[in-house]
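R.M. (postdoc): so does anyone remember the format we settled on? I'll just put the structure tokens first.
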């Protein structure tokens, strides 16, 4: 199950910029968890609708490969163009695509449902994908060069 652990390398104290590079080299992935009231329906959605490849770690407990990732840090309260907002959330999972309209059409054809229409935000075009047994998940086409998909 999984790949063997690589031998630990000794990490020597270094200036901040060098330490960040060293630590980033040992983090190999980001693991995301979706909590759900209906695990079977949620797993089927990720497997059959989104077509994420997976491994069964036992008893139908699927872990999905989700591809490249990025991590953003946002304030919990903000003001932008005269509007204020905030959230009690501490984490959020979003999916990124290259062409939101085509992706929404393809997913809708496979039975996916969305909350509302495509909306425009300063950072991209967004849709709220309804995940069976769980909350809505943001699907978006960024207006910035995503480090997750950079060549």
């Amino acid at each position: 199950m999984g790949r063997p652990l690589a031998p630990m390398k000794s990490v020597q104290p270094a200036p901040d910029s060098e330490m960040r590079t060293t630590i980033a080299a040992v983090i190999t992935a980001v693991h995301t968890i979706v909590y759900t009231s209906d695990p079977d329906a949620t797993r089927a959605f990720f497997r059959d609708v989104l077509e994420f490849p997976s491994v069964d770690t036992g008893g139908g407990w699927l872990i999905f490969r989700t591809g490249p990732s990025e991590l953003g840090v946002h304030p919990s309260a903000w003001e932008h163009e005269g509007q204020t907002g905030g959230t009690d959330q501490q984490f959020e999972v979003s999916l990124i695509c290259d062409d939101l309209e085509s992706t929404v059409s393809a997913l809708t054809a496979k039975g996916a449902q969305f909350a509302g229409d495509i909306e425009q935000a300063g950072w991209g075009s967004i849709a709220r994908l309804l995940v069976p047994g769980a909350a809505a998940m943001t699907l978006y086409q960024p207006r910035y060069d995503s480090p997750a998909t950079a060549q």
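R.M.: ...and that's the designed sequence above, right after the tokens. Also worth knowing: Confidence is low (pLDDT under 50) at residues 1-14. Residues 52 and 94 are 15 Å apart (CA to CA).
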